[in-house]
């Protein structure tokens, strides 16, 4: 393989690397951008997500809301320009509780989101002077409200979402949220980047050459050989391998990994309506087992954990159109950090645990307990920082940059994150939220003090 030259080399053809290339080539006109990846584009973790997006994020500060609002702006513009090729909808997220004691937390979350720029909080308590509630359409995104609807009227909850448990006492429905086609977004960005000069190179980044403190070249292994790409600018967009690639430059990134699994099952009884939003149960819960099951599980150390109270956060959404019957379920009840290994293994009980946990919120799913539809599983690693905020910007090596640590929100953040990365690379003006995602934030004593008291990450 002959040696090459490039203005910018990007390690990683996931959504982060592709979005960076889109902005560098398609927006800033840098025609000689090379993306290096040993796998096909979007095939490692980017195509394994729920494909959802939201501007519903906690503080401190409004950086995450600002980043996501900007990313959603770009997503909507792409949808408009492509006749909604990316199938963007605005169904929203629906956080549901069966615990009256959690209502103040939902009220606080809605008020905080409004203060941070997510849009107005509307409360529906059954009073005659309540604001109007606007249902979310199954398709499209135009003309829909922002902010959130806090629903404290149980009769209203049952009328709007009849598949939910009668135990549901409150729900909050953030509205600038929904989902889209990850593959179509990625291909749209990649196509435009390639039309503007970006090249894909199949291979593995095996080394980064640093001379006198700055990037000088990248070693790529492919076709049984190796070659060097001469470049002065290198972008680490390596997803779960972010830390490994950074170490090639002598940089230690403060990231760790969690394995998150998604299960798809058929719902032939149409228990969950096909126009449902993303549904999230906010209460910790034990799983609904029969007395016979409980006695059996209690006898073995290997199964006793199935009798535990599981953490909050099981969530699900319909997948496909009106004629489909697939439901996606996710529940990360094991948050222990792990090293990324491919292929990965998972808890064999996961599909049934996820189904039974979801049935606490949607009791009609109990119809599948005795004969669960055959599950299909996939997933990937969340690469995270301690406070669950990404790394976007320069590294301590001159000419080196990072775009990653997106946990489970890489798809929804990618458009704005790529824009921010490109501004760093080209010396453009930076948005107000840029410092919140720079690696240098960890050198700030005030930020370190903030981290010590950080109590919410925004992870679902």
Quick synopsis:
The chain contains 10 helices and 23 strands.
Lateral arrangement of strands in the main beta sheet: 6-7-8-5-16-19-20-15-21
End-to-end span in angstroms?
45 Å
Coarse shape: globular
- Return Rg in Å: 23 Å
CATH class of the largest domain: Alpha Beta
Main beta sheet: strand number and arrangement?
A: 9 strands, mixed
Count of the separate structural domains: 2
Secondary-structure-based class equals alpha/beta
Q: In what range is the share of β-strand residues?
A: 15-25%
Q: Considering DSSP H and I runs of 4 or more, what fraction of the residues is helical?
A: 25-40%
Number of strands: 23
Low-pLDDT runs of 5+ residues are none
* CATH fold naming of the largest domain: D-Amino Acid Oxidase, Chain A, domain 2
pLDDT averaged residue by residue = 96
Provide a descriptive summary of the structure in words.
This protein is α/β, with parallel strands linked by helices and 460 residues long. It has 2 domains: 4-51 and 182-255 and 385-452, FAD/NAD(P)-binding domain (3-Layer(bba) Sandwich); 93-177 and 257-381, D-Amino Acid Oxidase, subunit A, domain 2 (D-Amino Acid Oxidase, Chain A, domain 2). The protein has 10 helices and 23 strands. The protein has helices at residues 15-27, 63-81, 103-116, 154-160, 182-195, 242-247, 291-298, 350-361, 410-426, 445-452, and strands spanning 4-5, 8-11, 33-37, 52-54, 93-97, 121-124, 148-151, 170-174, 177-179, 199-202, 204-211, 214-222, 225-230, 234-236, 256-266, 278-281, 285-286, 309-310, 315-319, 326-330, 376-384, 391-394, 400-404. The chain has a 9-stranded mixed sheet with strand order 6-7-8-5-16-19-20-15-21, sandwiched between helices. The longest helix is centred in the N-terminal third of the chain and has 19 residues, at 63-81. The protein is globular and about 65 Å long. It starts with a strand and ends in an 8-residue tail after the last helix. The model has no long low-confidence stretch (mean pLDDT 96).
